[in-house]
Amino acid sequence: MWQPSILLLCFILQGAVAADRSEVWGYVEIRHKVHLFWWYYKSPHRASSPIKAWPTILWLEGGPGGSGVGGGNFQGIGPLDVNLKPRNSTWLQKADLIFVDLPVGVGYSYVEDPSVLATTDVQVAADATELLKALTKEIPTLHSSPLFLVGESYGGKLAAKIGISVARAIHAGALKLTLGGVVLGDSWISPDDFALSYAQLLRDVSRLSDEAVAPLNRMAAIVKEQIAARQFTTAKMTWTNLVDLIDQQSDGVDMLNFLLDKGEGSSTSQVFPSTPNTIDGLMNGVIKEKLKVIPKNIIWQGVAIQVFEAMNATYMKPAIDEVDQLLAYGVNVSVYNGQFDVICSTIGVEAWVKKLNIHTMGFKAELQGHDKLRREIVEPRHSGHLVERVLKSYSPKFKIFTNIRNSSRGSVILMENHNSIPGVPNLTKDGQENPRPHIAVRSHRGSHGPKILEAWRGKCRECSEPGWPSGSGGTNGLWLQIHRSTNHFQLETQGRGVGEAKHCKTNFISKSPPRSRRKHVGLRRAPQNFFGELEN
């Protein structure tokens, strides 16, 4: 297990270093009046060989405006959590880590003049490239360690942009390192594909009524048209209105995890009271004191609004072309996505991946016949938008580093995270444990049925009637009845006389949604607190 180092602070060009160089951090003035903060961790498990070099990961936080040094480190993949306790699932077990507060103005990074804040992804990529040039002098192992750019949400879009900038600098001889790959996690690569996916996804998981779908699709189509016309600022306004309308029509669905309502997901919240055990209190307290180099007037914030606003005109620009360029350079690109994510949905990811030129460059058959374009399944629990926040183990995601193929044309690995309801076993139709749970479905609140359900096909354990009506083929609308005394479910079709499931005869709680909202939900045992939730 990783243990914190005893630090001997030595000032080196606005930086500091641990006695054994297991940690190094500091500022780089990448442009005039622009100061970028970074923090490097050397893995205690580091072991390189001529066959397999030890990797280094540069973590890029989302936003734009999120702090990698704070959020990505202490709330994500770093060696310590916000309570300064060792994290068993830290990625430091498999790689050296670099966290950076990027774009400048985020976290501990700062500008002396607001006019020099980055306003485009291209500028952010240039800033990151200048940082890496400086870090090759501060971190000698970078020359022999393959560098992986890993970004989540908007950080994934920046990872693609930075990957192009770094690849070009390497090709020009201006940067002496090896780009091992680019990893896109829940990444904001194609805003129009995501916008077009919202209504379909939320309807399919019972967070929207049928009547809400058409107006949402019309608004998403406007977003697509505005992006095509390069009206990016206007497209952002329309997209914001689309998200607001979804909020109204869905009774406040959490766009980061459709199983939740807004405010229920504590793991993604960036707003905390400033106490020692919160990220704000930590970064402005003991961490700031440890680092020694942070100017006194710099107050660390989880989200830098001024940075988000400065990037307003570039927010809706797609980055599909950049992914294609990475592949053309021979850079491996890996994609992972949370199944419960809405804002960067897996449906949207699959849509933009199909637009890549790898499907039209004359080797489509080669990709299909081999494993250069692969679809893998990883199954961390609670996988919404910020997958790395809730991983129980680093190993599933490290497949993207250990299993990437070497290819002269690059490769894409698309991975989707499946999930299950906590505390409820996943059952197959014969009542056995299911190693791969199905997608969970949440119905509407109030009189519109139970709060959380999950699909599987089977028989009622009490009356032995089929849980799936014969003759429906799984295509008719189904609704649920719940037997209080025996704690089991039974399904009924939408009202057709043929093939309806028979019921147990006593004590049903019947809470069926209107026909327009009835969904194909399945049959399974209730969670322990299910009936309490029903009656609330």
How would you portray this structure in words?
This protein is of the alpha/beta class. The protein folds into two domains: 15-190 and 268-417, Rossmann fold; 423-536, no CATH class. It is 28% helix and 15% strand. It contains 14 helices and 16 strands. It has helices spanning 68-77, 121-138, 154-171, 191-204, 210-228, 232-249, 279-284, 286-291, 305-310, 320-328, 346-353, 364-369, 395-402, 530-535, and strands at residues 15-17, 23-31, 34-41, 56-60, 96-100, 110-111, 147-152, 179-185, 333-338, 373-378, 412-417, 440-441, 453-454, 478-483, 488-493, 508-510. The strands form three sheets. Strands 1, 2, 3, 4, 5, 6, 7, 8, 9, 10 and 11 form an eleven-stranded mixed β-sheet that branches. It has a three-stranded antiparallel β-sheet with strand order 15-14-16, with no helix packed on it. Strands 12-13 form a two-stranded antiparallel sheet. α4 runs antiparallel to α5, α4 crosses α11 (346-353) and α5 packs antiparallel against α6. The longest helix has 19 residues, at 210-228. It starts with 14 loop residues before the first strand and ends with a helix. Mean pLDDT is 71; it is low at 1-13, 266-275 and 360-536.
